[in-house]
Amino acid sequence: MASRFIDRAKVYVRAGDGGHGCVAFRREKYVPFGGPAGGDGGDGGNVIFKVSSDLNTLIDFKYRPHLRAAKGGHGQGDRRTGKKGEDLVVKVPPGTVLYDADTGELIADLVHEGQEAVVAKGGKGGRGNARFATAKNRAPRRFEEGSPGEERAIRLELKSIADVGLVGLPNAGKSTLLRAISRARPEVASYPFTTLTPHLGVVEADDEGERFVVADIPGLIEGASQGKGLGFEFLRHIERTAVLLYVVDGSTLSQSETAGGPIGDFVAVRREVLAYSEQMKQKQSLVAINKIDLVDSNEALLELKAQMERVAGKPVYLISAAGKTGLDSLIQGIRDVLAATQG
Ligand SMILES: Nc1nc2c(ncn2[C@@H]2O[C@H](COP(=O)(O)OP(=O)(O)OP(=O)(O)O)[C@@H](O)[C@H]2O)c(=O)[nH]1
Ligand SMILES: [Mg+2]
User: Fold this and answer.
1) pLDDT for 15-61, tens place per residue?
2) Helix axes 327-342, 174-181, angle to 10 degrees
3) What CATH number does the domain located at 1-159 have?
4) How much is the pTM?
5) How far apart are CA 264 and CA 267, in angstroms?
6) What residue segments make up the domains of the chain, in order of their start?
7) Whether residue 290 has its Cβ less than 6 Å from ligand 1
8) Whose CA is nearest to atom 12 of ligand 1?
9) pLDDT for residue 1
């Protein structure tokens, strides 16, 4: 299934109305006029948007443009309060910015996993007649209606979809790397084309809250720009990232001589990426040689690094995504490049 990557949406949200207060009287044997016993209405549910890194596009909103939270229940006799309307919690991907569609006002910038914003408040439940009894009026028939839930149109924008795009052959370990450096959970498997849709992960780059967003896309193969494989179409998802990170499988170094090895793989992927668009040529990039845990010779690795640096003309990092080695300096390297592109 080809998934569409949607980065803008407009939705109409409506919080639940508050329930009405109730007018009721106690009915007791031998008591001609029981006291007022109408309970309050329950509050209406809120509409809440909440970040979940399970999502990476706004596509769900295309199919669900109207979102409503539940109404509060009406009050009942015996002073029973109406049930509170359940909140409607709507998941959005990290990096979703919410605006009031009518005024343009910024409502929230939702970045962190679990971060949430109440976008429409539920109405208050009305008071029942039990609350209006006074010494003078022991049998009030007065009650309040619940107030209506807030209603508004909201524009969602998935901003800076990612800062860094991962590119590489299928099986290079892109998804493993994203899992190792963020809380995103793209599938990982030992066969090519495991990743079929883009995934985003937020990398916490330091303790001061600096972070960047990394996009994992399906692997690219030679001839991708002529339509081979899957990956080419997905390059558009990283067209707006500031930085590309080439992920190269370093373990092919110790395998047969048949393929081009890590250098040949890098050159092939870079050719496809640059064939995609002029924009790709403007991007800063870095190279990570992955799976170094599978290479026995340290000497061979350093040799490969030096060679790769000559061919790529960029910083090259030796990492093991699975073994979580070399990741701190890679993250630091990405930060430096990002800082340079922003500054
Ligand atoms: N030994 C070792 N294996 C790794 C490492 N990184 C990834 N792998 C393995 O390589 C295989 C492919 O990893 P993925 O992360 O799915 O690769 P991918 O680049 O996302 O692949 P596609 O989604 O198909 O493009 C899996 O079996 C991983 O467990 C590593 O650092 N060391
Ligand atoms: Mg993958």
Assistant:
1) 999 999 999 998 776 666 678 999 999 999 999 999 998 887 888 89
2) 90
3) 2.70.210.12
4) 0.63
5) 5
6) 1-159, 164-342
7) yes
8) 171
9) 28
Q: Cα(first)–Cα(last) distance of the chain, in Å?
A: 40
> Residue 80 gets which letter from DSSP?
B
For residues 125 and 92, give the distance between their C-alpha atoms in angstroms, rounded to a whole number.
29
Q: Tell me the best of 177, 178, 187, 188 to mutate to test the pocket of ligand 1, counting ligand atoms within 8 Å of each CB and taking the most.
A: 188
Which numeric CATH code is attached to 164-342? 3.40.50.300
**Cβ of residue 322 lying under 6 Å from some atom of ligand 1:** yes
The string of pLDDT tens digits covering residues 185-212 is 888 888 887 777 778 888 988 877 788 8
Whole-number Å distance, alpha carbon 194 to ligand 1 midpoint, is 9
Using CA atoms, how far apart are residues 170 and 166, in angstroms rounded to an integer?
11
Question: Does 291 contact ligand 1 (Cβ within 6 A)?
Answer: yes
Look at residue 309 and tell me whether its pLDDT is greater than 50.
yes
